[in-house]
Amino acid sequence: MLIESIQVGKSKAIEHLGREIKTAIFKYPVEGKVFLKTLSLEGDEQADLRVHGGLDKALYAYPSDVYAEWRKLRPNDDFSNGAMGENLSMSTLPESEICVGDTYRIGEAIVQVTQPRFPCHKLGLKYKDMNILGDFMKLGRPGVYYRVLKEGLISKGQAMSILDREKIRFSILEFFNFKKDQAPDKSRLREIVSIEALPKKWRAKFQLALKD
Questions:
Q1: What secondary structure letter does DSSP report for 160?
Q2: Model confidence over 194-210: pLDDT tens digits?
Q3: DSSP-derived pairing of the beta strands 88-90 and 3-8
Q4: What SS3 state is found at 159?
Q5: 52 in helix, strand or coil?
Q6: Which pLDDT tens digit goes with each residue over 35-87?
Q7: DSSP letters along 63-119, please?
Q8: Are 11 and 25 in contact (CB under 8 A)?
Q9: What are the extents of the domains in the chain?
Q10: By C-alpha distance, which of 53, 40, 28, 65 is closest to 141?
Q11: Which of these, 6, 11, 80, 90, lies nearest to 41 by C-alpha position?
């Protein structure tokens, strides 16, 4: 898994149905080394911290090899690196193999997998078509969010090298499909809530599902 490009973006206002909405989904490539901080890449912003950013979504990576599928699906749209609002466009990023708690070194930094990306209306605003949200879910390639365990410089061309894994394997794709297909069975939920690296928000949701 190699970094093909690094993108950052500032929050800006766009107009939608007569309203002004702030978004930082427009990301643009940067060259050279970039400092990865605890909450974001240097120079990057998140517009709405209620649903974006924070410790568990400090860094977003997306597989650039999926853009060929997006171009077939939506030939009139631009799908260059950064199109999904990702910070890192990766040569490959197999969500079926990458699991919550997987810990990687990138350059000087250390990051840990937390969850898949679930698209919000900002992606629809970017493409001026809310149908892209359904396309995103159907395509089933959500990309990966990371928390930053160690800050440091990263750069294009570097590889993610695995350092550690959780005993319970809960892949990003399985996580993503739970959202689409509703809750899993309770025996699986009990395993999932025991994962130390699972974000607190999701642990609470899964624990609630166990009580139902």
A1: P
A2: 999 999 999 999 998 88
A3: antiparallel
A4: strand
A5: coil
A6: 999 999 999 987 566 666 789 999 999 999 999 999 999 999 999 999 999 99
A7: EGGGHHHHHHH-TTS---TTTT--SEEES---TTT-BTT-EEEETTEEEEEEEE---
A8: no
A9: 3-180
A10: 65
A11: 6
For residue 181, what are the CA distances in angstroms to 8, 53, 113, 129, 173? 32, 25, 22, 24, 12
Where on the phi/psi map is residue 43: left (φ > 0), alpha (ψ -120 to 50), or beta? left
Copy the structure tokens of residue 79.
Answer: 């799908």
73 burial (CB, 10 Å; 0-12 / 13-18 / 19+) is middle
The CATH superfamily assigned to 3-180 is PK beta-barrel domain-like (2.40.33.20)
